[in-house]
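Side project, low priority. Logging it here so it doesn't get lost.
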Amino acid sequence: MNSKPAGLQTLLRLFAYFAGVVLLACLLSPPLYWVGTWLAEIGVLPVVKGFPFHRYFSRSVQISAIVLLLPAFRGIGIRGFSDLGLQPNLQWRRDLISGFLLALVPVILLGAGYVLSGVFSPKPNFDSVGFLRIGGTAAVVSTIEEFLFRGVLLGLAVAVMPRYVAALLSAVLFAVVHFMRTSRQALEVPVGWLSGFEQLPLAFSSAPPWPLLGWGFLSLFIAGLLLAYATLQTRSLFIPIGLHAGWIFGQQSLQLVAQFRPKPPDSLLPWVGPNVVSGAVPTGLIPAFVLLATCVLVWVYLRRVSRTS
């Protein structure tokens, strides 16, 4: 594993990176909002017309994380992917496709069961082009999140703590971050230099209510553990990227073609509830069992398929 500086010093530098990302996002988001609004008004960038400030703040966090990543690597002592425990994967195409299918097929079966049992009802009309949008979202989000959570965070954690503790920590953080959604701000509210900092106390204000929050956390935690396991076993991100993309594509496709019916939404819990976090995270014991079944499928795949052939 990583032979570079580890221990308390590495953890402190990692926390400094996250603090720097938040600080830079707070400072960057107001001018980004002003420039984007001006470009939309003069017709140069009409696609962002009417975008509220909280969306600019979210994009600023992503931009800041990417901008500060290289300096953070150098400060921690990371010079390449091998320092994060990652190695070249000669079977990357097979692993990527297999991961995608191992995640997608159980989700399709789960969705079919939902529709047949009346939990979800098919929508009379839906835009088939939406599948292209969902596919693009699945590809981009899964690649970025797996690089940050399993590549960077898990790789650094394994360097300073036991593997099982690192996997648990990465799974918890993976679940928590998905509920950090800043509050929607009315368009008429003026944006100033401190508007980014004002978003920080509202980080969890858009989280779903209990018990949906707890069930959503359980699903994300199981998924995070599986993604960490696949990364540690293969020392590669391709199975995790495939799994992540398959889950996103399957769950958001279900939201596109069908609608959750029960009222109130938590009336069928603990067995099943509505999807949360933009329709990508299922809730309830049944989805948790499906995720555990995917864990078994991945375990069988990794045992049956040679990593050297």
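Brief comment: The CA atoms of residues 289 and 303 lie 21 Å apart.
Revisit when time allows.
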